[in-house]
Specification:
Elements (H helix, E strand, L loop, with lengths): L1 H15 L2 H8 L2 H68 L7 H4 L25 E9 L12 H17 L6 E2 L4 E3 L4 E4 H14 L6 E12 L5 E8 L3 H17 L12 E8 L3 H6 L1 H12 L7 E4 L1 E6 L2 E6 L6
Antiparallel strand pairs: 1-3, 1-4, 1-9, 2-7, 5-6, 5-8, 6-7, 9-10
Helix pairs in contact: 5-9, 6-7
Pfam families: HVSL
Protein name: U6 snRNA phosphodiesterase 1
InterPro entries: Usb1
Length: 332
């Protein structure tokens, strides 16, 4: 029993001891050398395997990167090919599409303005139509408000006189057209831009504050023609009140010069146009003046007030709008 216990103790001690302890106690030098060589061989084999694995990983990475580059190049080629195909398709579409033409209003200069003579009593325009210009004029109106006389007004008397002289001229082959509004012009026809109308109106209105009201008398017939000789006018010259009207014309000319606008005619022949005819008919109309003077005398022999008008205000017509400019009074 004692021998068995001793053997078991030695076995446990051997199993629990390290290799070095077992080698030192129970292994020869040749066994140790053999084990060492085997251990070195195993380590070398492990290193080689590790190197082989590393090399294979590097090769895989190279292959993968090559594949990636190839894939990228292939994608770029496909993209370029698609773009070129898209361009060719676009060109094909553009070549086959129908181009819609631009409207004439955008490509052409548009139709020029055409005046209808039937809407203007056959009158011809003396300056070209421009949508940005406003034909304007200063004048004294001869109407019911400014007319003098008691009972029959001077305005209604003037209307009757014009009817009589038209009949008289018609008998001699001259067809006169009655003026639509009787007035005494105090300026030429002005072409104004829209932004000029309001300041010019205010300027003239302030200028007229020093002018008191007065009365004008119509005297006798006279013949006039416009600058373009497109119309001939029959007018009544101003007798009394001519000096006052000439003063107003001078004030207007001074203001118009500030705006670089033309002044009134140098001769300053103030008259009321009561009828007109197309073309230059001065010779024929002058030959009829003695007959027309007889008609004039028959209307005003017994009552001179029937040819008088009170100058209370002036009119400034700009386009189709009329501004009333009061004399001797200015209100903002």
């Amino acid at each position: 029993m004692a021998g068995e216990s001793s053997a078991l103790g030695l076995l446990c001690t051997y199993e629990s001891s390290s290799d070095s302890e077992r080698d030192s106690g129970y292994t020869s030098d040749e066994d140790k050398k053999r084990k060492c060589d085997r251990s070195l061989s195993e380590d070398t084999h492990k290193i080689k395997r590790q190197r082989t694995d590393n090399n294979s990983m590097v090769e895989d990475m190279i292959v993968d990167s090559t594949n990636i580059s190839v894939n990228k190049q292939s994608s770029l080629n496909n993209c370029c090919s698609n773009k070129s195909q898209d361009k060719s398709v676009d060109l094909h579409i553009k070549r086959n599409c129908i181009v819609i033409p631009l409207p004439n209003e955008l490509t052409l200069a548009g139709p020029s303005h055409v005046d209808e003579g039937s809407k203007h009593q056959g009158r011809a325009r003396t300056f070209p139509h421009d949508p940005g210009n406003w034909a304007s004029i200063f004048y004294f109106p001869l109407n019911e408000i400014t007319s003098a006389g008691q009972g029959m007004s001077s305005f209604s008397t003037l209307q009757n006189l014009v009817c009589s002289i038209r009949k008289c001229c018609k008998l001699h082959g001259l067809h006169l057209t009655a003026s639509t509004d009787f007035h005494i012009s105090l300026s030429k026809t002005l072409l104004l831009r829209l932004h000029m109308i309001q300041p010019l109106t205010q300027h003239v209105r302030a200028t007229l504050t020093t002018m008191p009201s007065f009365t004008v008398w119509l005297n006798k017939f006279a013949v006039y023609v416009n600058e373009e000789a497109t119309r001939t006018f029959l007018g009544l010259d101003v007798l009394a009140g001519h000096a006052e009207l000439a003063t107003i014309v001078g004030k207007l000319d001074h203001v118009l010069d500030t705006y670089q606008l033309p002044s009134f005619y140098k001769e300053c022949s103030l008259h009321a146009s009561v009828a007109w005819v197309k073309g230059d008919q001065r010779q024929l109309l002058n030959s009829l003046l003695p007959l027309l003077e007889e008609e004039f005398s028959s209307y005003f022999t017994y009552n001179d007030d029937l040819r008088a008008f009170n100058v209370l205000y002036l009119n400034f017509k700009a386009g189709n709008r009329i501004h009333k400019l009061q004399l001797g009074r200015y209100t903002t």
